Amino acid sequence: MIDNLDKNVALKVDDLIILNQDKVRSYLIEHPQLLENVQKTHHLSYHMDYGYNNQNNPVKIAYANDKIQRIIIKTKEYPQKRLKITLSYDGSNYHGFQIQKNELTIQGELSKLISEVNNKEILVQGASRTDAGVHAKNQVIHFDDQSNLSEFEWLKFLNHQLPDDIYIKSVELMHPLFHSRYDVYEKEYLYQIKLGDYDPFLVNYAWHQEYLNFIKLDDQLKKIIGTHDFTSLAKGNKGDNIRTIYDAGYKMDDDILKIYITGNGFLRYMVRLIVNHVINYATQKIDLDILEIINNRSRKDTKDLSPAAGLYLNKIIY
Predict the structure, then answer these.
(1) How far is the C-alpha of 32 from the C-alpha of 78, rounded, in Å?
(2) What is the three-state SS of 34-91?
């Protein structure tokens, strides 16, 4: 295993962090028990291995291009019962996912109920921080549970206590080192456009457009596929703005246009800025190509967002 380390591999053992291939390899050679006979559990994905070493310490190993990128090992103070929850919600009445003081949020509603059962303050962690008015078909959260409730009991309790616009789809017991945000391999967002006549019943669930050119739409969506610096299509992010888009396309469902964008991660407002551009291009309001916008690395041509109401967190893949 130590011969398969990426040159930028990171090792974390409890609070100790070691960076660099040579230093990580040396530490593991000096402490062979850490990765001795790691038994993988059934909580696996194709880019992440979870298991336990000979000393029954939880181990997590992340891969990219068949090379080990991260190794995390806990020898003390690790959770005994980490739960993963998959849920859907209508975001119309919420100020986004992330908890905010004096505002109604998805994270706040979930954390409140889970804290009451555990008799201690628990802040659930989510895979994606959806904005105000944005919906989710498959959001994922995790938390460390100290109650005696089974997964089925949690499912029934939460669905009974939560508002009708939040629905728990599943509750699963996970490996102690599973993380709903950091272990994500792929996210898919869906954006809905209502074409033709205006429908007042869709005001909170789609963006209305009378017409568009599908050839122009497809051209712009295909051009974002690949790895790019998305500085021009993000808001307020001063750090690493490089992301990889695996796929982008659309399909029609009667008069509803559904745009799908799948990637390894998304910056703040990135999907809404992309959709705003491709729709303006496809409705011939602008003629600036999206690759030119990306290459400019400037927000001067991307000041407007598509409405939050049309956006859905559609799928999380681990």
Answers:
(1) 21
(2) HHCCCEECCCCECCEEEEECCCCCEEEEEEECCEEEEEEECCCCCCCCEEEEEEEECH
Distance CA 62, CA 47 (A): 6
Q: How many CA atoms lie within 13 A of 103 on its CB side?
A: 16
Of 49, 131, 145, 183, catalytic: 131
Q: Is the pTM of this model over 0.85?
A: yes
Give me the pLDDT at residue 263, please: 97
Q: Name 278's bridge partners.
A: none
Distance, CA of 186 to CA of 264 (rounded, Å) = 5
Q: Let me know the angle formed at the C-alpha of 142 by 134 and 95, rounded to the nearest 5 degrees.
A: 25
Q: Which domains does the chain have, with CATH numbers?
A: 2-73 (3.10.450.50), 82-174 (3.30.70.580), 186-317 (3.30.70.660)
Contacts of 123 (CB under 8 A, 6+ apart): 99, 107, 111
What is the reported pLDDT for 41? 84
Q: For residue 66, what pLDDT is reported?
A: 87
CA dihedral 146, 152, 158, 160 (to 10 degrees): -140
User: Is 131 assigned a catalytic role?
Assistant: yes
Gap between the Cα atoms of 21 and 312, Å rounded? 39
pLDDT tens by residue, 250-267: 999 999 999 999 999 999
At 65 the pLDDT is: 86
DSSP H or E stretch at residue 295: helix 290-296
Q: Which residues of the chain have pLDDT under 70?
A: 42-46, 237
pLDDT tens, position by position, 189-202: 999 999 999 999 99
